Amino acid sequence: MFKMNKGFGKKSLTLCAALLAAALVVTGCGGSGGGSKAKEEVSLENRYTPDANRPAWELDTKEEMTELTWYVNADWWNTDFGNDVVTKKIKEDLNINIKFITGDDTKLNTFFAGNDMPDLITTFDSNSAVVQKASTWALPLNELAEKYDPYFNKAAAADTLNWFKLDDGNTYGYPNYSNTQADYDNGTIPAKTAFIIRKDVYEALGQPSISTPEEFKSVMGQIKSQFPDLIPFGFNSIGEGTGSLGDVFQDFLGVPLETENGEFYNRNLDEDYLAWLKTLNESYQEGGISDDSFADDGPAFEEKVKAGKYATMLLDGTPQQGGNLQIFMTANPDKAYMAIDGPKSTVGNEPKLNQSGITGWMISFITKNCKDPAKAIQIFTYLLSEEGQMLMNYGIEGETYTKNADGTVQFTPEVKELQLNNADQFKKEYRMGEFMFFGHDRHKALSADAFPESIKQMQEWGKGKLVPHFILENINPDQGTAEARSLTAINTTWNTAMVSLIRSKSEAEFDKTLDAYKKFLDENGWEAIVKVRTEKMQANKEKLGIK
Fold this sequence. Notes:
Layout: H1 15-28, H2 56-59, E1 66-72, H3 85-94, E2 96-102, H4 105-111, E3 120-123, H5 129-132, H6 141-148, H7 152-155, H8 158-163, E4 173-175, H9 181-186, E5 193-198, H10 199-204, H11 213-226, E6 231-235, H12 247-252, H13 271-285, H14 292-295, H15 298-307, E7 310-316, H16 318-331, E8 337-340, E9 363-366, H17 373-384, H18 386-394, E10 401-403, E11 409-411, H19 413-421, H20 423-429, H21 456-461, H22 482-502, H23 507-523, H24 526-544
Parallel strand pairs: 1-2, 1-3, 6-7
Antiparallel strand pairs: 3-9, 4-9, 5-7, 5-8, 10-11
Helix pairs in contact: 1-4, 6-17, 11-13, 15-16, 17-18, 19-20, 22-23, 22-24
Keywords: Signal
Protein name: ABC transporter substrate-binding protein
Signal peptide: 1-28
């Protein structure tokens, strides 16, 4: 899947909301609001005896259906439960009924000011005050596993549990799409980044190399001359960030993740990367990069992808664009986009493409107000298990999918037909691939149905080029600090500066813009930010056992 760029944008708290959350968590959960004390332990007498070798949901004999309330901090979440194949099976197997509630950061914070906490909470920002203060309002998963479901420790990834461990030694939340080093080593995580070119353009130009700055400028010039109706070079929409021309391009060039002595490295000022930004600037001056590409928002970019308007693209999030690429491929099979090596490091570095990291995306908790924490931890174990993962991705064997001798799977013809031609009905009746609490990339590798044909060659090209960026996760200064405020200003300045560098009208203007950015760093406490990030990188290494 893709880096929480998984198709939806992560909701991050604004500074005010973060400060409010911190205050509410500290005060609300400490007194009557939110409930600082857990409810009395649930008795397992006459229900089951916990077994490290069997999941508790298989052992639990509780006859009464457990009613749980689950808050998801996203307005778009589908609150239906028990009516589609996936959630109906969960309801039957676990003997539970879940009432989903959705909202935004404001609604999330109100829980900590009142007495009506839900049984479970899912949020999306691992750096938020709510998550960092989880010990005041959530139950430790490690203790719940010990009391009620020791099999949880077999289903969960030890590295992920350790990653989310707080200072008190307990782990309170567990994410989805948390990729560990073993997942990268196993090669089951597909690349989501590629430099692509239209097949007809590639053939017409004699299958050129575009790996050096000189080759890049030459090919862009040839495209401009021979394919005047096409935009020579495209990239993800800039918006408020840097699209695919920022850290994604840096990954493509294999820019180091840290200095030789293990300190945070400002990749934006890497000489290799700056040399390529100068190349893009020279190509821009020659008409190889369009002004429109910097103004296009997401929908405009997607429409041009569907229409094949770009001759080449540095594309991040190929699964997200898979549908648009498929539309163009279906209509123009001889012109379909394909991945090639594209720009390479000028100093010999190999690509270090990134994917979803160990932090994952949706983080779920069991609150201290949970009516039945034994049943709640059973949900975690069930969804994390092989059985739960297969259910969420593919449904029920024999009913919605069939398994091959080699372990791969495919949807039945009826289900596949509905998936391709009636997405709304597929979602309503089946919901495979959508109900993804604790979902994982590695299960996508089991089926050719997991991704469209349009991106499979791109994923094949990316094999062997993924390098985890774990050490760079969650290293920003804590919200509310002077360093955090400075970093916000610096990031905004860099977003503007990077675009200005590429669109400079001369080399002198390029250098002037770069010098202004460097000066802004010095004037806004960059050294203090580097110190914080380096310390957090070191903490990450200790969690991961990296020397």
